[in-house]
Structure formats: C-alpha cells, structure tokens
C-alpha cells in the first residue's frame, strides 16, 4: 500500500487535509494522527474489521485493548454504560487532555476494541488535529500509539513514517507531539480509582481532585488490569541499564561501563540529564543523548522516546540511562525507562 504523508498545521489544521483523513476513516481505513501525547493509529471504533487492521499494522497481540478517542461528551455517552462520580470529576478537570478513563462499556463497543473486557478506555485528546479529525469523521476513533508493537511510541511524524510506511494510506504529520509521553490510564469503573498506567496526568494531580487514588502494580499482580502493561514495551535492540542514585556515582559507574563495553567492542550509548552531560561527554560514549534538565521533567518526557529510538538507529549494543526523580511526571518517565531496561536497574546511592 502506498502511504501518503501530509504536513498539517498543528494549531489551525487545514480543512482539506482533515476531510481527506475523515474520508479514509469513514471508508474503514487507518489514519495516523498527532495527539498532545503521542501519535495515534486511528480507525472507526464502531467497525470491528477496521479495528482489526490496527492490530495487523502494528503486529499487536489481540488481547491488548484499544483506547477510544472522542471529541465531545455526547460521543462518549454512547459508549459508556455507567458514569461514576469519579469519572464525572475527571471529565470536568482533565478533559480534553492526557487522561484515559476506563469505564463500563455499552454494547456499541465491539469486542475487539475492549479485547473482550467489560470495560472500555476512553480519552478526549486536546490536540487540535485530533479533535478536528474526530469531529469531521463524526465517529469515535480507536487509536493505540502509532508504533510497531514493542517499539517506543512515536512522538514525531518521522517516527510514524518509519514504522507505518507501506501499511496505512495516510499520515497526518504535525511535527513533534507537545507532551511526548502517553496518557495516564485510570480505572474509574467503581471503587477507589486506580492508575493502570502512569502518564501525562500525575497521581498528585488526580489525588487533588479525587482524594484517594491507588496504583496497579503489574509486577506484583500476575494479571495487570491494563493488559498492555505486561508486554516489554519500548525495548531498544541493545541491552539497556537504568541507573538510579546520586549523579556523581552514576557518572563514575557509567565511566566504568563504557570502558568495559569498549573493551568488548560494544557501541555504548548514554541517555542522561543536561547537568551530567558535560562529565559523561569526557568519557567518550559512542552516543550521548541529553534527555533534558533535572529541573524540567516535561523536557525529559518530550525527548525520551526520540532518545530510545536514536539508540536503535545508531545500533548501540549497550545503553546506559540516568534515572530521574520519582513524583509528578517523573513517575511516568521512570515507568517507561524501567520497561525499556527490561527491569535491569542499578541502584547506586
Ligand atoms: O496517550 C495515549 O494514551 C496514546 C494516544 C494515541 O492517545 N495511546 C496509547 O494507546 O498509548 P496504547 O494502545 O499504546 O496503550 C493503551 C493502554 C494499554 O496499556 C492497554 O492495555 C490499556 O491502555 N487499555 C486499553 N483499554 C483498556 C481497558 N478496557 N481496560 C484496561 N486497560 C485498557
Ligand atoms: Mg502503545
């Protein structure tokens, strides 16, 4: 299949391009589009055979359900059987935005979207292209991140192009996604709200509105409530080690690992903070990628997936990553780094 890549204005999307995207979606085809978090691979959420194409294009296991994107409350109403008070509060405070709500579904939601679960995950994105596209299509859009399954989520049109070229008819490319990290997935189907995946809205922000909020810990439960959390995501080809602790000791340890790696003729890449970069630069890694300042987690979030992808493109055999402080957006960043490292984590106090 020939893939068309169209550059679209991220603030005032061109009407003809939105119409073209809507026409493909109405015809049961896939369109990649930007959201404020990462690029989504969209299909008509009410059309099971269109949604099946998402799983094929991504190589995604069918037991991993899809997030449905809506542009207004009425559209969400047709998909949700029971709005809990917690869900209502979340809608008021965080929609449109990077918060996905898991709620009891209606029969309108095909089984392939919810992977047979009784709940559906719904989100109203804030990106103008995403909102206009859903509006013009007039349909809820099922859309996972537009990467090949197992790869880091795409935060630019180029990332989508590399993963989806030849597999889908259209990519709407609005450049970099503002946040660069996926939405928070929150179960508000009943009882105490539970974070199934940390993301763009922090636990602290949710607690300020909802009171008590729990966190599902997939490594402790055999069956995580968000099925996607059990897969090894964001895994670069090379071996990755995440280092947590004092910067000074991390820099020291990285120096050792770089030397050891080079002794074994390995290419060693480093992902680090702006503050540590000058010291690590002197240790001559084969790639030095600055994630951002320790004081600006939003900067780190927006660069993280680009850094992981770059390590693969430059064929790093070993990747050494400096951790960030937990809390706020830092918790979501560390969640992605831990998954990328396949739980190879070094604590260096
Ligand atoms: O920011 C985002 O959320 C992006 C953009 C495109 O909106 N989407 C995204 O989708 O990250 P995806 O498919 O890559 O991740 C969705 C996560 C998976 O971990 C999945 O298992 C979980 O949400 N999920 C989806 N539906 C669910 C449901 N009904 N119950 C529990 N978890 C669900
Ligand atoms: Mg994904």
Strand content: 15-25%
Total of helices:
12
Average residue-wise pLDDT:
95
CATH homologous superfamily grouping of the largest domain = DHBP synthase
The helix-strand sequence is: EHEEHEHHEHEHEHEEEHEEHEHEHEHE
The general outline is globular
How many β-strand runs? 16
Strand order of the largest sheet: 1-8-2-3-7-4-6-5-9-10-11
CATH topology of the largest domain: DHBP synthase
Q: Give the end-to-end Cα distance, rounded to a whole number of Å.
A: 52 Å
* Uncertain residue segments: none
* Sheet of most strands: 11 strands, mixed
CATH class of the largest domain: Alpha Beta
Rg from Cα:
20 Å
CATH architecture annotation name of the largest domain? Alpha-Beta Complex
Number of domains: 2
Find the structural class using helix and strand composition: alpha/beta
Distinct compounds present: threonylcarbamoyladenylate, magnesium ion
Description of the structure:
With 349 residues, this protein is of the alpha/beta class. It has two domains: 4-215, DHBP synthase, CATH 3.90.870; 239-348, Rossmann fold, CATH 3.40.50. The protein contains twelve helices and 16 strands. It has helices at 15-26, 48-58, 73-77, 85-94, 111-114, 128-137, 157-164, 203-210, 247-263, 277-281, 297-313, 329-340; strands spanning 4-7, 31-33, 40-44, 67-69, 99-104, 119-123, 141-142, 170-173, 184-187, 194-197, 214-215, 239-245, 268-273, 287-292, 318-322, 345-348. The strands form two sheets. Strands 1-8-2-3-7-4-6-5-9-10-11 form an eleven-stranded mixed beta sheet, sandwiched between helices. It has a five-stranded parallel beta sheet with strand order 14-13-15-12-16, with helices on both faces. Helix 10 (277-281) links the parallel strand 13 and strand 14 (287-292). Helix 1 (15-26) crosses helix 6. The chain is globular and about 60 Å long. It starts with a strand and ends with a strand. The model has no long low-confidence stretch (mean pLDDT 95). Bound molecules: threonylcarbamoyladenylate and magnesium ion. Magnesium ion binds next to loops.
């Amino acid at each position: 299949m020939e893939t068309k890549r169209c550059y679209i204005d991220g603030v005032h999307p061109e009407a003809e391009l939105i119409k073209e995207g809507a026409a493909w979606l109405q015809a049961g085809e896939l369109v990649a589009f930007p959201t404020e978090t990462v690029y989504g691979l969209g299909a008509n959420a009410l059309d099971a055979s269109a949604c099946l194409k998402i799983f094929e294009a991504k190589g995604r296991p069918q037991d991993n359900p899809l997030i449905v994107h809506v542009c207004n409350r009425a559209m969400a109403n047709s998909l949700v059987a029971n709005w809990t008070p917690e869900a209502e509060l979340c809608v008021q405070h965080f929609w449109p935005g990077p918060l996905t709500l898991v709620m009891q579904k209606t029969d309108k939601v095909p089984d392939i979207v919810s992977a047979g679960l009784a709940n559906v995950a719904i989100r109203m994105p804030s990106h103008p292209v995403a909102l206009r596209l859903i509006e013009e299509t007039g349909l809820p859009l099922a859309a996972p991140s537009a990467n090949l399954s197992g790869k880091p989520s795409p935060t630019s049109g180029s990332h989508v192009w590399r993963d989806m070229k030849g597999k889908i008819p259209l990519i709407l490319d609005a450049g970099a996604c503002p946040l660069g990290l996926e939405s928070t997935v929150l179960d508000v189907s009943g009882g105490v709200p539970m974070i199934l995946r940390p993301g763009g809205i922090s636990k602290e922000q949710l607690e300020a509105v909802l009171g008590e909020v729990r966190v599902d810990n997939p490594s402790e439960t055999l069956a995580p409530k968000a099925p996607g959390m059990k897969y090894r995501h964001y895994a670069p080809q090379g071996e990755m080690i995440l280092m947590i602790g004092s910067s000074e000791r991390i820099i020291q340890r990285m120096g050792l690992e770089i030397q050891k790696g080079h002794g074994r003729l390995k290419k060693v890449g480093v992902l680090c903070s702006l503050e540590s970069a000058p010291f690590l630069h002197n240790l001559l890694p084969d790639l030095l990628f600055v994630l951002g300042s320790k004081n600006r987690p939003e900067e780190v979030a927006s660069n993280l997936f680009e850094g992981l992808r770059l390590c693969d493109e430059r064929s790093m055999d070993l990747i050494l990553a400096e951790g960030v402080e937990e809390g706020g957006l830092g918790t979501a960043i560390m969640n992605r780094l831990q998954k990328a490292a396949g739980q190879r984590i070094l604590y260096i106090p």
